[in-house]
Amino acid sequence: MKRILITGGAGFIGSHLCERLLNEDHEIICLDNFFTGARKNIMHLMNNHRFELIRHDITREIFLEVDEIYNLACPASPVHYQYNPIKTIKTSVMGAINMLGMAKRIRAKILQASTSEVYGDPTEHPQKESYWGNVNPIGKRSCYDEGKRCAETLFVDYHAQNKVRIKIIRIFNTYGPRMQPDDGRVVSNFIIQALQNKPITIYGDGNQTRSFQYVDDLLEGMIRFMDTEDSITGPINIGNENEFTIRELAEMVMELTNSQSEIIFLPLPENDPVQRKPDISYARELLNWEARVQLREGLTKTIAYFDSLLKTL
Ligand code: NAD
Ligand code: UDP
Q: Which residues constitute the domain of residue 236?
């Protein structure tokens, strides 16, 4: 049994990770400032004596004794990370410094939830870990993209300079139950719009692509990577290789919900990446991992979640 700290543990991915690691008999400290996370995401875990919740902001120092840290705290949807861009950078950068400082002091292993956004609007396709990316440093997405890039730099420097045991994973678009209904991401937006027979809002012409990964697949890759030997630091891509246009996603969601919605086209946000698909050769070779849940199956589960959520509102 390990004592594991999950920052951002009350968020979408974090709450699933808390649940999964509790089920594996570990002791979990969930740390969150509830910016985009919610108490209801972890309410069902509160009675477990191995689960502890701390309300804290990772831009401030904290002293805890743990074996492993999963650093997930950071708003992840464009709407939320652009709401207070300075705070987003502080969370990525100061948060990384605080968590790495703690990992150094207590000799904990620490995993950083990095992102496919470090590749920006990629000119290489699919994206390999060796690709340096094509990121605008002064655009609307920069607070997130550059914050996450700087966090990766901090991780590798703490490893090189202070021998901190680090793991960097680059997560590609992930979806599933407990995504916030109001966070503006494409999967939650389309499902809610379709279930309510409201117009489906495609930004741009809908020919931009993304590769959507179901949350359970991500957790499997993340935990397997955390368990690799100390010499392995990443970065490693964790994502589903199947690429869809946003228009195809809209059509699949409408079919699965029997929706009467119409599709409307709205302006494409600034610097919206044209295409995104992970090269997962490294994850396959190192972890014997690949995404198993296909889009249709994952969407069906996510639709059931939002369907019951909407009935309670
Ligand atoms: P989320 O917004 O649901 O979760 C983020 C959590 O971090 C929330 O609970 C929020 O309250 C908390 N948080 C934010 N700022 C904080 C701070 N300063 N101090 C403490 N807690 C703070 O998002 P998510 O989709 O679950 O993403 C989790 C992590 O995975 C993020 O780091 C994100 O960048 C990364 N990621 C997610 C995706 C995806 O598609 N969901 C893709 C790539 C990377
Ligand atoms: N998108 C869309 N309609 C929406 C929300 C998003 O067409 O209601 C598009 C968005 O422009 C982008 C893609 O869907 O091209 C994925 O957007 P999301 O915000 O989910 O993630 P990210 O852009 O960070 O990959």
A: 3-172+214-240+278-292
* Secondary structure (3-state) at 264: strand
Is there a domain that residue 257 lies in?
A: no
Is residue 59 lining ligand 1, measured as CB closer than 6 Å?
yes
Residue 110: its H or E element: strand 109-115
Ligand nearest to C-alpha 187: 2
pLDDT in tens, 10-29: 999 999 999 999 999 999 99
DSSP 156-207: HHHHHHH---EEEEEE--EE-TT--TTS--HHHHHHHHHHTTPPEEEETTS-
Q: pLDDT tens digit string along 211-253?
A: 999 999 999 999 999 999 999 999 999 999 999 999 999 999 9
Instruction: Mark whether 144 is an active-site residue.
Output: yes
Q: Which of 144, 158, 214, 282 is catalytic?
A: 144
> Exposed e or buried b for every residue in 24-54, given b needs 16+ CB within 10 A?
eebbbbbbbbebbbeeebbeebeeeeebbbe
Q: Model pTM greater than 0.90?
A: yes
| Spatial distance between the Cα atoms of 71 and 151, rounded to a whole number of angstroms | 11
The ligand that comes nearest to the alpha carbon of residue 222 is 1
The answer to whether residue 222 is domain-embedded is yes
* In-domain check, residue 182: no
CB atoms within 10 A of CB 297: 11
**CA 166 centroid distance within chain:** 18
| For residue 128, pLDDT beyond 90 | yes
> Which numbered atom of ligand 1 lies nearest the CA of 10?
9
The pLDDT tens digits for 259-287 are: 999 999 999 999 999 999 999 999 999 99
Ligand 2 atom 4: residue of nearest CA:
186
Do the domain assignments include residue 118?
yes
For residue 276, give the ligand 2 atom closest to its CA.
25
**Ligand 2: nearest atom to the Cα of 117:** 24
**Mean of the pLDDT values across residues 99-128?**
97
